[in-house]
Design a protein that fits this description.
The chain is an alpha/beta fold. 41% of the residues lie in helices and 15% in strands. Strands 1-2-4-3-5-6-7-8 form an eight-stranded mixed β-sheet, sandwiched between helices.
């Protein structure tokens, strides 16, 4: 197993080396390409300028969606289109992701993500809302639920990070996670990734996450690569991450808001056993496993996953009117 991991690491680094170094892309260039008419920006008290979109029905019950590692708010557009007729849907780029700009010296952390979610939603004047997070964003979301349960009506965890599964039945897929996470866990690989072009790693990593390779279009690969090249981003991300994080079972047990856990059975990034463990540990949580989905069911099976979220939200106690 160790030899196989080393071989993957060596091959990936060789490919990245052959592709050469890549320079940062200025934020203004990235905004011109990836901001949409719905894009808005606000600067928080910690100096982070957050890129967000506030879409859907303005007077509808609010739903806040938080993306995963290396992704951005565009990953939620399939749900925005399917839920926006009823709900006010807020999406945001976390620090070190998308078009969000961080001040010099900012350190990426789960606590920092919780603070950004909290300050942005308060700035927007949102009443108690449903919070959904994918992957790393799921970790930020359940940590937010622990810190601010009074702010939430419900919690949706989509292929979320969490405690390691207990049984061998929940072991990761045999092929393992995308090579980039294995490289990030190696000091030599981490040093190399600070300046090398991420493109050779992007397409194979995305194909593992999406399962359905037809969804991994050139435009999708371009977006992931371009946003990874925002000024100082590689340095910041690598300083804060060494691969998918885990969490303690005792912490997760403290989640007290109604929770829906959704996970693709073919997830090669966060094993399905992690979702099963979250469903077991969070009191009263509902668990849905999608047999043919991978790490991003909101993009791979948007109709079914959005319908499941809608059914979950409709089952929650009625929301209090804004300002009450």
């Amino acid at each position: 197993m160790a030899r196989k991991t080393l071989a993957v690491l060596a091959a990936a680094l060789l490919a990245a080396t052959l592709a050469g170094c890549a320079r940062d892309i200025p934020y203004e260039t990235l905004k011109a390409k990836y901001a949409s008419p719905a894009s808005k920006f606000t600067t928080l008290s910690n100096g982070v300028t957050v890129h967000y979109r506030d879409q859907g029905r303005p007077d509808g019950p609010p739903v806040v969606l938080v993306h995963g590692f290396a992704a951005n708010l565009d990953t939620w557009e399939p749900w925005v289109g399917r839920l926006g007729d009823t709900y006010r849907v807020v999406t945001l780029d976390l620090p070190a992701h998308g078009l969000t700009v961080t001040p010099p010296g900012y350190e990426m952390s789960t606590q920092g993500q919780v603070e950004v979610i909290d300050e942005l939603t308060r700035q927007l004047g949102l009443p108690p809302f449903v919070l959904a997070g994918n992957s790393m964003g799921g970790g930020a979301s359940w940590n937010y639920a622990l810190a601010h349960p009074d702010r939430l009506r419900g919690l949706v965890l989509v292929a979320s990070v969490g405690p390691r599964p207990r049984s061998e039945d929940s072991a990761p897929p045999r092929e393992g996670p995308p090579a980039v996470f294995r490289i990030m866990g190696n000091p030599v690989g981490r040093a190399a990734l600070r300046s090398l072009n991420p493109r050779p790693l992007a397409e194979p990593g995305l194909k593992k996450a999406y399962v359905d390779e037809s969804l991994v279009t050139p435009a999708l690969v371009d977006r992931y690569v371009d946003l990874a090249l925002a000024p100082g981003r590689r340095e910041m991300v690598l300083a804060g991450r060494r691969g998918p994080p885990s969490a303690s079972a005792d912490a997760v047990k403290g989640v007290s808001v109604p929770t829906l856990v959704m996970h693709g059975e073919k997830d090669a990034v966060v094993p399905v056993g992690v979702g099963q463990e979250l469903g077991r540990l969070i009191p009263g949580a509902r668990l849905i496993i999608y047999p043919d989905a991978g790490h991003v069911p909101m993009e791979q099976i948007p109709d079914r996953s959005a319908a499941d979220v809608r059914a979950f939200i409709e089952s929650l106690p009625a929301a209090k009117p804004a300002g009450k």
